[in-house]
Amino acid sequence: MKDHPPPDTPQRCGLVAIVGKPNVGKSTLLNALVGQKISITSRKAQTTRHRITGVRTEGVTQFVFVDTPGFQTKHSSALNRSLNKTVTGVISDVDVVLFVVEAGNFAVADAKVLSLLKPGIPALLVANKLDQVNRRAELAPWLQEMQQRHEFAELIPLSAKAPKDVEHLLKVCEKYLPEQPWWYGADELTDRSEKFLASEMVREKLFRFTGDELPYTSTVIIDKFEEEPSPKHGRLVKIAATIVVERDGHKAMVIGDGGERLKRIGTEARMELEKLMEAKVFLQLWVKVRSGWADDEARVRSFGYE
């Protein structure tokens, strides 16, 4: 990337959508591209629920990345309809699309996302998880096959965990961004509030510590987010949050023996938030049962989904 552009070089700025089926590594890629954790990651599919914008400014170029929920084809609850609307809304309004798949794999769910890509918007095939491919020689014919499925502007095999690969992807994306003034300050990382990031961080730990036992319809609501100056810490943030689950059995699972699991979720989320916010954080968590919320349009909206 350009370190010291000439003073008269015009600025570039544009939107880059990151799309793909659930669990192909979109959030990990977004965090790597931004250079800071702003999107939650988990082995559980469907972790990302909202359109999350990440900003990276390098030289004269500002990349505005949009991470979308994985396009969901299996279920059609009110929550999933809302998630899919988010995906289709994003990809019709960007300068370039990163279509993320697992290197060497292409399933029906990938094909459904691919069918959403709009003609006229350049799409880059990002073949992620390259580090997990044993036979690299088999990748070339697979890439050719992918190019026949869609006219990709570029084919980029990479691992989102390899900094060199991520730098290369940035350089490629830069070519597709228009010359125009930046939309954000040079040091801004996301358009999402700290309150939003707090709910996402708790949700990540919730899924991480419950694994596949807990349905992905569980969510987190922030009840209180207060900041006060602190002579000792400089900045003190008090957060109270409710984990919403659909059944009493799920509630017991989240709380764990003697409250142990809930305590662990809270501790891990608090530590990450302190790093992210550069503040002392007090975090209180409760668990409530709201059965059927993911099928209730009004409740899905009231919980902050579009």
From TrEMBL:
<dbReference type="GO" id="GO:0000028">
    <property type="term" value="P:ribosomal small subunit assembly"/>
</dbReference>
<feature type="binding site">
    <location>
        <begin position="67"/>
        <end position="71"/>
    </location>
    <ligand>
        <name>GTP</name>
    </ligand>
</feature>
<feature type="domain" description="Era-type G">
    <location>
        <begin position="12"/>
        <end position="179"/>
    </location>
</feature>
<keyword id="KW-0963">Cytoplasm</keyword>
<keyword id="KW-0547">Nucleotide-binding</keyword>
<dbReference type="InterPro" id="IPR004044">
    <property type="entry name" value="KH_dom_type_2"/>
</dbReference>
<dbReference type="InterPro" id="IPR005225">
    <property type="entry name" value="Small_GTP-bd"/>
</dbReference>
<keyword id="KW-0690">Ribosome biogenesis</keyword>
<dbReference type="Pfam" id="PF07650">
    <property type="entry name" value="KH_2"/>
</dbReference>
<dbReference type="GO" id="GO:0070181">
    <property type="term" value="F:small ribosomal subunit rRNA binding"/>
</dbReference>
<keyword id="KW-0694">RNA-binding</keyword>
<protein>
    <recommendedName>
        <fullName>GTPase Era</fullName>
    </recommendedName>
</protein>
<dbReference type="InterPro" id="IPR030388">
    <property type="entry name" value="G_ERA_dom"/>
</dbReference>
<feature type="region of interest" description="G4">
    <location>
        <begin position="128"/>
        <end position="131"/>
    </location>
</feature>
<feature type="region of interest" description="G5">
    <location>
        <begin position="158"/>
        <end position="160"/>
    </location>
</feature>
<dbReference type="InterPro" id="IPR027417">
    <property type="entry name" value="P-loop_NTPase"/>
</dbReference>
<comment type="function">
    <text>An essential GTPase that binds both GDP and GTP, with rapid nucleotide exchange. Plays a role in 16S rRNA processing and 30S ribosomal subunit biogenesis and possibly also in cell cycle regulation and energy metabolism.</text>
</comment>
<dbReference type="InterPro" id="IPR006073">
    <property type="entry name" value="GTP-bd"/>
</dbReference>
<feature type="region of interest" description="G3">
    <location>
        <begin position="67"/>
        <end position="70"/>
    </location>
</feature>
<comment type="subunit">
    <text>Monomer.</text>
</comment>
<feature type="region of interest" description="G1">
    <location>
        <begin position="20"/>
        <end position="27"/>
    </location>
</feature>
<dbReference type="InterPro" id="IPR015946">
    <property type="entry name" value="KH_dom-like_a/b"/>
</dbReference>
<keyword id="KW-0699">rRNA-binding</keyword>
<dbReference type="InterPro" id="IPR005662">
    <property type="entry name" value="GTPase_Era-like"/>
</dbReference>
<comment type="similarity">
    <text>Belongs to the TRAFAC class TrmE-Era-EngA-EngB-Septin-like GTPase superfamily. Era GTPase family.</text>
</comment>
<dbReference type="GO" id="GO:0043024">
    <property type="term" value="F:ribosomal small subunit binding"/>
</dbReference>
<feature type="binding site">
    <location>
        <begin position="20"/>
        <end position="27"/>
    </location>
    <ligand>
        <name>GTP</name>
    </ligand>
</feature>
<dbReference type="Pfam" id="PF01926">
    <property type="entry name" value="MMR_HSR1"/>
</dbReference>
<dbReference type="GO" id="GO:0005886">
    <property type="term" value="C:plasma membrane"/>
</dbReference>
<feature type="binding site">
    <location>
        <begin position="128"/>
        <end position="131"/>
    </location>
    <ligand>
        <name>GTP</name>
    </ligand>
</feature>
<feature type="region of interest" description="G2">
    <location>
        <begin position="46"/>
        <end position="50"/>
    </location>
</feature>
<dbReference type="GO" id="GO:0005829">
    <property type="term" value="C:cytosol"/>
</dbReference>
<dbReference type="InterPro" id="IPR009019">
    <property type="entry name" value="KH_sf_prok-type"/>
</dbReference>
<keyword id="KW-0342">GTP-binding</keyword>
<dbReference type="GO" id="GO:0005525">
    <property type="term" value="F:GTP binding"/>
</dbReference>
<keyword id="KW-0472">Membrane</keyword>
<dbReference type="GO" id="GO:0003924">
    <property type="term" value="F:GTPase activity"/>
</dbReference>
<keyword id="KW-1003">Cell membrane</keyword>
